[in-house]
Specification:
alpha+beta, Arc Repressor Mutant, subunit A, 4-stranded mixed β-sheet, two-stranded antiparallel ribbon, 3 domains
Length: about 475
């Protein structure tokens, strides 16, 4: 068979994502803070973009006329401000005016007090301050610095005494002595090497040395997790009531003492959408506080309209930036409209939830909203990612309203979040001495015509952070 070259025409369709379309999709799935950061970056790189300021004053409005006081007053007469005879100016100057007068000005510029920010104390700085206030020697403080530098956020020592001794060139006894001092600093229990040691330090500090609680922590801390009080009582020769009383003392201790001095900042959620009830209907308002309103810079727009003033390369550059700026503004408006439409559809589906609470949350999938507003499911998924809505029932992520369906009473479907809330209510009202097992919870739900298996109850319980029945049991 002979090989030959030839040309042929084939007609086919391809879906090509332009850079503008990729940018629009990217903006759609950004959170509020990410969108603000993206807009600020675009404003720095694109001179065509500028933030729209407030309303400009009317051009025809005349400025108020200024009056020359020398012409307004009669010649030879100068109007003076009224004097106050009841002010003791010498006492005023002596009390308030001497501090700055005695301080010489050296000509240097100092930052204003408004530019200083308070630093939140953390565990390391708090311990370092106490270490400097102690009567330790310089060599012992060096050991203390190594110990404090190897603490984690919970306050536990993440290295060995041998490693610290090798790093500082000191003996093990010296390191152990400094470690004992640090463990008694505030918060008590820091620099412990495990949970048992942390609890023992706190018990001894509060005067519970040689007590039943200390014996339980020292020898039976592993059994406390499963609440096996009977074997502990038999081993120690005491009653179960005495063990329960000692456990109440142990549970009042802090197993993570370093957390109280964590410098982690709390991140607050700023909702993207607000849903308010006005009469019998719900109104949707987009949260645009803090988002700059963009517009095209009028100077560069005039440059494009001018003839012969600027070169062609300059105009081509401005034209490219103009297209990029116009597409960004259009994409932001399209993003806001899409979020509004998706929220509007969710409000229609979850109207009963907004009125009555989580027990009336309906099963909902992305396809339902996509068919309602005639969009693709992938678009709905991007819109509901990292977006939060403020409702009369609280602040929720938009993903929260999409739940799988579980067969409920009368053949109707119940949302999985409603089932989780029902499980939470059942466990909240149980007898603490004899808590419900997962099978018993499943039978109670079945009595309410909600058919779920035991493993489903266990899965929901674990996702909600609820302990199993053996660890929820409280004998006394």
């Amino acid at each position: 068979m002979a090989l030959q070259l030839k040309q042929s025409l084939n007609l086919s369709q391809q879906l090509i994502m332009t850079p503008q379309l990729q940018q629009a999709i990217k903006l759609l799935q950004l959170s509020r803070l990410e969108l603000l950061e993206t807009i600020n970056q675009e404003m720095e790189t694109n001179p065509m973009l500028e933030e729209q300021a407030g309303e400009d004053p009317d051009d025809g409005a005349a400025a108020p006329e200024t009056v020359d006081t020398q012409e307004a007053l009669p010649e030879g007469k100068v109007e003076e401000a009224p004097r106050r005879e009841d002010v003791d100016w010498e006492a005023y100057l002596g009390e308030y005016n001497t501090g700055w007068a005695e301080t010489p000005y050296d000509g240097r510029e100092y930052p204003s007090f408004e530019n200083f920010t308070a630093q939140k104390p953390n565990l390391t700085s708090h311990l370092e301050w106490q270490l400097q206030m102690s009567d330790l020697s310089e060599e012992e403080r060096e050991i203390g610095d190594h110990i404090i530098g190897n603490l984690d956020v919970d306050g536990y020592l993440k290295t060995t005494v041998e490693d610290i001794a090798e790093a500082t060139g000191r003996s093990l006894d010296e390191v152990e002595g400094v470690l004992d001092v640090i463990q008694r600093l505030d918060p008590v229990g820091v620099a412990a090497r495990d949970t048992r040691e942390c609890l023992l330090i706190q018990l001894r500090f509060h005067g519970w040395r040689k007590s039943l609680a200390e014996a339980i922590v020292r020898d039976y801390v592993d059994r406390l997790e499963n609440r096996d009080y009977d074997p502990i009582a038999r081993s120690l020769g005491v009653t179960v009531e005495e063990v329960a009383s000692a456990v109440s003392v142990i549970t009042s201790l802090d197993p993570r003492p370093g957390r109280r001095l964590s410098d982690e900042e709390t991140v607050y959620i700023s909702p993207d959408i607000y849903v308010f009830k006005v009469g019998d209907e719900y109104e949707i308002v987009l949260n645009e506080d803090g988002l700059p309103k963009l517009r095209i810079n009028s100077f560069y727009r005039d440059v494009l309209m001018s003839k012969g003033t600027y070169g062609e390369s300059t105009k081509e550059y401005i034209q490219d930036k103009l297209k990029s700026a116009a597409w960004l503004i259009k994409s932001i408006h399209q993003r806001q409209r899409t979020i509004y439409r998706v929220t509007q559809s969710i409000v229609r589906f979850q109207h009963e939830f907004l009125d009555k609470g989580i027990a009336f949350l309906k099963p909902l999938v992305l396809r339902d909203v996509a068919e309602d507003i005639e969009m693709h499911e992938s678009t709905i998924s991007r819109v509901t990612t990292n977006k939060y809505v403020h409702t009369p029932q609280g602040v929720y992520e938009l993903k929260y309203f999409f739940n799988s369906a579980i067969s409920g009473p009368g053949g109707e479907s119940v949302a999985s979040e409603s089932v989780k809330q029902r499980i939470r209510d059942i466990i909240k009202g149980e007898n603490r001495k004899k808590p419900y097992s997962d099978q018993e919870v499943a039978e109670i739900l079945k009595a309410d015509s909600i058919n779920v298996a035991r493993r489903t109850v266990a899965k929901y319980r674990e996702t909600m952070g609820i302990l199993p029945s053996r660890r929820r049991r409280q004998i006394y």
